[in-house]
Amino acid sequence: MIDSHQSEPENAAALRAIAPVICYPVETLPAPDLAMYRCARENAEQIARVVVPARDASSVFVPAGSFLRILCPEGPQVGDLNLFNAHDLSERFYSGKTRALHGTHVSVGDRLWSNFPSLRPMATITEDTLAWYGMDQFGGSVHDVIGTRCDPYTAQLLSGHHYHNCCHSNLTRALADAQNLDLCQSEPLVHDVLNVFMCTGFTRDTGQYFMKASPVRAGDYLELFAEFDLLAVLSACPGGDCSAEHSSDVARCYPLEMIVFKSTNDALGNWTSPPPNAYDRSHGR
């Protein structure tokens, strides 16, 4: 928001014309071997299939070296995904660093990174049937890592209402059920999400986060390769395709599915899970 009492400096045009610099050049990051992943996927066998009910959440265990398909089976529906190290819930998806490394929206070849101190790839996107969408005239694209998740606190702040089927609450309940935790234990572990299938961006005039009708249709999917044992928790957003609103009992909603495919060790060749980040954690002391 511009303060109308502040005047522009004489060199305002020159300051605006300064070229941007990419904060984190990724040329030195090890590139994922997509050809190897796709070869491993060819003979992978389905080992789990979980339905995520509309306006609710479910979880599934995804073994290292397997593939997780997030499928839209019936109608346009977006999902909010949390990922955890299946053996250490303190290591979980870090949307902010993923955004800083790969951009506001992710697709094939991008990786989903874990939080500090491990900061390592949790999963690699290997297939995306919505990759054709690109970025539209409004600056919108799919699979964002800029939004948080619809939650009861913001809903109460803006409307004064208590709403319990928002993605934050859905994820909290599903994680509690999966790990035999009470809600007070599971809620702090729920984190900013990958907004699967959601079409979002920032308005060019005010810079506000926007959503629009997702292009996802029945049969579309996003597929991830698990770089180590993962617990995936997915909420089918109460906004449906998010064309009008979220945290709503009015929007038309559909279920989602999580399907796990296990590849053979031979198909993965010399692949191994990435180690935790090598920083020594001395922080200058």
How would you describe what is shown here?
This protein has 6 helices and 13 strands. The protein has helices at 12-16, 34-42, 95-102, 152-159, 167-179, 183-186; strands at residues 45-52, 57-62, 66-71, 79-85, 88-92, 111-113, 121-128, 141-144, 194-202, 209-212, 221-226, 230-236, 256-262. The longest helix has 13 residues, at 167-179. It has one domain (48-264). Strand 4 and strand 5 form a beta hairpin. The strands form 2 sheets. Strands 2, 4, 5, 8, 9, 10 and 12 form a 7-stranded antiparallel beta sheet that branches. A 6-stranded antiparallel beta sheet has the order 1-13-3-11-7-6. With 285 residues, it is of the alpha+beta class. Helix content is 16%, strand content 28%.
Tally of structural domains: 1
Number of helices: 6
Write the element-wise H/E pattern from the N-terminal end onward. Answer: HHEEEEEHEEEHHHEEEEE
As a whole number of angstroms, the C-alpha radius of gyration is: 20 Å
Residue stretches low in confidence (pLDDT < 50, at least 5 long) are none
Largest β-sheet summary: 7 strands, antiparallel
Provide the β-strand percentage band.
25-35%
Quick check: average pLDDT?
A: 95
What is the general shape?
globular
